[in-house]
Structure formats: C-alpha cells, structure tokens
Design goal:
Structural class: alpha+beta
Radius of gyration: 26 Å
Strand content: 15-25%
Strand order of the largest sheet: 5-6-7-10-9-8
Number of domains: 3
Shape: elongated
Largest sheet: 6 strands, antiparallel, barrel
Distance between the termini: 88 Å
C-alpha cells in the first residue's frame, strides 16, 4: 500500500549516481540491447511501490528519453532494410511494438496515481502537459506499430487515448504547445497528438505497405494543424469519435448518440494543401520543409499522396463495382516465380486455401490464415484458382487486416483472368514475366516483371507462337516491393 510506510526504495535507479551511470551506459549500447534493457527498467520502476510518484514519473521520463534514439534507429532498420528474414523482422517488430506498449502503460500508471491524489501528486502538476503528450504519443506509436503488421488493433486502445485527452481538456492544457523531446524539432499538444491518431486511423493504412504507412504518418503530421477538431461537426464530410468509449473513429453518416466524449474532426484545408503537394511531387519537386523521415523519390511518395488525397477528400471513396456475398474455396500461391511455374505447368508450389467472402468484377475479399512465414502483406502478388475451376487468375493484395493472431482478411485486386507466362530477353538479361492481356499488334498490354526490371527504353523480346514477339515499353504502371507492372506496345510479329 503506497504512502503508509516511509521506507525508502532500494531500486538502483532511486540513487542519483547509480541512475546516471546506468543511463549513460544505455546511451552507448547497441539499439536492440538498449531497448530491451530500458523495457526491463521501466517494468521494475512501475512495480516498485516504495517509489514516490514524483520520483517514479521522473525515472519514466528519463528512461523514455534514453530510448528515443534507439527506437528511431530500430524503426529505420525495420522499414528500410532489404535483407531481413521473416523471423528477424518479427523480432524487430515485437521489440518496438512492445516497448511503446510498455511505455504507455508506465505513463498510465502515473496518471492513475495522480488521479488517486496519492501523497506528493500535487508536485507533478506542472509536468502534466508534457506527461500527457508523451502518453498519447506512446499510445499512437503503439497503434502505428500494430498497423505495420495490419493488426489486430484492440478497441480498448481508443478508450485509453480518449481518457488521456479528456483529462487534458478537464485540466485546461489540451492545446498547450510544447516540445515533447529536447533536441527533436517540432511542438505538439495533447489535442494534436490525439487528433493525429484519429486521422491516422481514418486514412485507411491497411492498404499501404509499412514504409508507406511511415511516410503517410509523417505527411499527416505536417498538415495536422489544418484539420478541424471540436464538439460540433465542422463539415458534412466529418468523422466522429466518442473519446469516452472503446470505439475507433468513424465517418459521419448519421448523427451519433450524444455524449460528453463526442468529438468531430474534418480535413479542413489540409486536403487542398495536400493537393498542391501532389502537383509539386508530380513535377519532380520534393519540398524540404516536410520531414518524410528520409530523402524519397517522387516514385515512392506519389502513391502515398494519392492515397491520402483519396481518403481526405470531401467525398469518401466508393467501390467501383458491386460486391456479391459468396462462400467458396480458393487456392492461392504467392510470388512471380511460383505463379510463372504454375502457368507453365512446372510449378510444385504449396497452395494456401482461403475462403472467399465476396466477389466483384474488380476483385474479391477472403478470410485467410496468416501463417508462420509471414508472406501475406499488402502488395503481394498472387496466383489464384477458384474452387471447381482449372484456370489461374493473377491478382495483388490491396488490403490486409488481422482479425486475431490466427485469422486475417484480405482484399484482392484481380489483375488478369487469363494470364500467360512468358520467358524472354530484357536488354540482354533473361527474364520471366507474366502477360496479363491478349496481344494484338499495335495495342498495349500489361506485363508483370521482376522487381526493378522495368526499363523505359528496353524492349521485351520473347518467343510467341513460333515467332519472335517484341514489346516496346510505354510506361511503368506500378513499382511494387516484389514486382514491376509495365505497359508495353505490341510490335508487328517478325
């Protein structure tokens, strides 16, 4: 029981000299080892009932600050390293996700103790604005790391964020601007941190790849002050959230039930500013005032900006084709090599078996078992064979949600219902590819190529029906993490 006994904590970090030695040592540790050690110290600090609240919060602050350079390095490694194995990737993801979850819980523990009016609680009142901003940022970063693996995201997370934000409102500091971390540019507030998590959620991150999610989050952070947020709907195209309940934000389709936690937000002028940015990037200009986290080419940025423009628009995106509910089996394989082998009858790939829930002219949705190898992700190329059929379809995963750790749901865009495997020469390099359209002289066709194989001036030459066929490049339609999609013009047969 806190506050009854006057015994002094024997925690190593309770001694100022020892704490300085430990924290100085953490600064020079390898990032993974440092983050693991900091997580252990956080757990022990929160568990020590003899630490007074001001001392406990002070140590959480210092451990948080010690972790920041390490979390940035590990996040960059996770998002940009091309050679991570599936198990290594998962370990790196788990270390980051679990740290932010632990940090948020540590701050929430301090908030509980303050609201319980524990002895000494009044002395931390000047620190409340910084404390709550960091708490909301930890919860929002936990949300982002969960989205990197497409969930599942617990609804309780929204109630935890809402509780912290409503506390800031009640204490009249929700709009107070401050620098969350010394030496890191930019100011924030409890209102902006909460709003950022809300906008992140409604921006449909489940159809972006992890690096694109990171870029999108940084972009929305830049335009966040332009969003409207308040107790009244500022526009008919607003979203709403009840900060007192464990529900994610939703598009305003009908007036929600009134309540003290009800808040509305809308894109405001952010959508127009984003449109101007898109035009700049289309011209090959990447403005320096926006911190995307690294120097990215327009080719990488444009799909993200197009995506955000779609979801911040005054009219929400609608489906291009009607969907029809079904329940049928589907065999699926992933990867250009596996699909090429199946189409040429040389494939020996192991099939995944999924349950299709609905279909349309443009694609389908299916329930899946994510499996241990982790290949299921947005942008994965699929070969699919519906139950009872003998033909293969080619598609790509456009949306992925984990329902729980053993089940997921994917949205698949169908690229072709009559794909054909080809093998030829691409600028002197042997190339396996998949032709998606019927070839007619003078017309264009889409071709799936290996990743980074498309060249704007290099034709694809291959044997076709006893002759030599030549496809001249017109443009690159998509550049995926696993494949390129090129548009080519069919030349008359030689």
């Amino acid at each position: 029981m806190r506050g009854i006994f006057s015994a002094k904590s024997s925690h190593p970090l309770a001694d100022a000299r020892e704490a300085r030695r430990i924290l100085d040592g953490l600064a020079i540790e390898e990032p993974s080892a440092a983050l693991d050690a900091i997580s252990g110290w956080l757990e022990s600090v929160v568990a020590d009932e003899l630490l007074r609240l001001p001392d406990c919060l002070g140590l959480v602050f210092r451990l948080d600050e010690a972790a920041q350079p390490h979390t940035r390095r590990l996040a960059r490694h996770y998002l940009t390293s091309p050679r991570l194995g599936r198990q290594q990737e998962y370990r790196l993801w788990k270390a980051n996700h679990d740290f932010w979850a632990l940090l948020a819980s540590a701050y929430e523990n301090c908030l509980d103790r303050f609201q319980d009016a524990e002895k000494g609680a009044a002395s931390i009142r000047p620190q409340l604005p910084l404390f709550v901003v960091r708490l909301l940022r930890a919860l929002a970063t936990q949300l982002k790391w969960a989205q990197f693996r497409y969930g599942p995201i617990e609804d309780l997370l929204w109630q935890r964020m809402g509780r912290a934000y409503l506390f800031a409102e009640a204490e009249n500091f929700s709009e107070q601007l401050l620098a969350p971390y010394a030496g890191v540019p930019g100011e924030s507030s409890a209102r902006l941190e909460y709003l950022k998590a809300l906008v992140f959620q409604v921006s449909s991150m489940d159809s972006l790849m992890p690096l694109e999610i990171e870029i999108a989050e940084r972009c929305l952070g830049h335009y966040l002050p332009l969003f409207a947020f308040g107790r009244e709907a500022a526009a008919p195209n607003a979203w709403w959230v009840n900060a007192a309940r464990s529900l994610p934000p939703r598009r305003l389709a009908a007036k929600p039930q009134a309540g003290p936690g009800l808040r509305f937000f809308a894109a405001g002028t952010a959508a127009a500013k984003l449109g101007q940015l898109r035009q700049q990037v289309e011209r090959g200009e990447v403005p320096a005032e926006i911190n995307f986290g690294a120097q990215y080419s327009p080719r990488i940025l444009l799909p993200v900006l197009n995506h955000l423009s779609l979801y911040w628009a005054s009219r929400p995106p609608t489906r291009s084709h009607d969907r029809h509910q079904v329940s049928s089996r589907l065999a699926a394989v992933s990867g250009l090599g596996s699909i090429h082998g199946l189409l040429t009858r040389y494939g020996g790939s192991k099939f995944e078996h999924w349950t299709v829930e609905d279909v349309s002219l443009g694609g389908m949705a299916a329930r899946v078992a994510p499996g241990r190898d982790g290949w299921l992700r947005v942008g994965a190329l699929l070969g699919m064979q519906p139950e009872g059929g003998d033909n293969w379809l080619v598609g790509v995963i456009r949306r992925f949600n984990r329902i729980d750790h053993g089940r997921g749901r994917v949205g698949i865009e169908t690229l072709s219902r009559s794909p054909q495997a080809i093998a030829g020469d691409l600028g002197g390099v042997a190339c396996q590819a998949i032709l998606l359209d019927t070839m007619r002289s003078g017309e264009t066709v889409r071709v799936i190529l290996p990743n980074a194989a498309f060249e704007p001036a290099v034709p694809l030459v291959f044997p076709w029906q006893g002759r030599s066929a030549r496809l001249d490049p017109v443009g690159q339609l998509r550049a995926g993490a696993e494949f390129d999609l090129g548009l080519y013009r069919v030349q008359p047969p030689a």
